[in-house]
Amino acid sequence: MKAIILAAGRGSRMNALTEDHPKCLIEFRGKTLLEWQLETLKESNITEIGIVAGYKGDLIKPKDAAFKFWNERWNETNMVGSLACADEWLSKNTCVVSYSDIIYKKAAVESLINCPAELAITYDPNWRELWEKRFDDPLDDAETLKLKSGGVLSEIGGTPTSLSEIEGQYMGLLRISPKAWSEIKRVRENLNSERFDNIHMTDMLQLIIDEGVIDIQALPYEQEWAEFDSPSDLRYFPNLDGSF
Q: What is the C-alpha to C-alpha distance for residues 139 and 137, in angstroms, rounded to an integer?
């Protein structure tokens, strides 16, 4: 299995921290976010790793990455647009796909590797404790996530009005098979030009759910992970020394 890291965007909410380099090169506890990810993917026995680069992509020079894809329109597109830049791999291989601003343990990757579903995501069922540290109101920056029987995703990416609408938080880590990628491309091609470029990943996943052609398996992950959306996140996450 191969892995793709989506690292094309600047991450403007990080302010000055991404002025001189892309978000994936921000340092956390002595390593860049990209180094954390590459180490975890290799620990999970994934040796072929591609990176979708864009903003200041020439600075991304990880020796352990197999390939660098380019999103030349990184400032005009969103995650799904970046993902499409790796069509060469996605059309032929089942891939683990990771956002570049998260870190996690190998259990998250291994759950995706071992999942037989065409399309799967990991999610944090214990999200509330973490969100209460990051935000005054845990509903701030949270998205809906609902499940039906068997852990199949039934809703994702909406704006919640109550905690009852959130069974966990999507982490930005997926498994996509060639069949699932073909379905994503089909759905995307039916969008208007503006949405074609700017659709968010969770919105795309909801469209896949609405189409009903393939199920999305949601895999609970209860170990340490971290997401870096703003400078304050660099201090809010638990002490990872020894855990990672």
A: 5
Residue of 156, 210, 157 whose CA lies nearest to 183: 210
**Helices marked H in 143-192 — which ranges?**
178-189
- Number of structural domains, the chain? 1
Answer yes or no: is 151 within a domain. yes
Three-state DSSP class for 156? strand
CA distances from 203 to 57, 115, 191, 206, 210 (A): 26, 22, 12, 5, 10
Residues of the chain below pLDDT 50:
240-242, 244
Residue 129, pLDDT score: 86
The CA-based angle 173-26-7, given to 5 degrees, is: 45
Residue 77 within a domain: yes
| Domain containing residue 34: CATH number | 3.90.550.10
CA dihedral sign of residues 61, 63, 64, 66? positive
Quick check: is 241 in a domain? no
Give the model confidence (pLDDT) of 155-179 as tens digits.
Answer: 999 999 999 999 999 999 999 999 9
Residue 238 has a pLDDT of: 55
Residue 154, domain member (yes or no): yes
Do residues 3 and 64 touch, judged by C-beta distance below 8 A? no
The boundaries of the domain holding residue 202 are 2-236
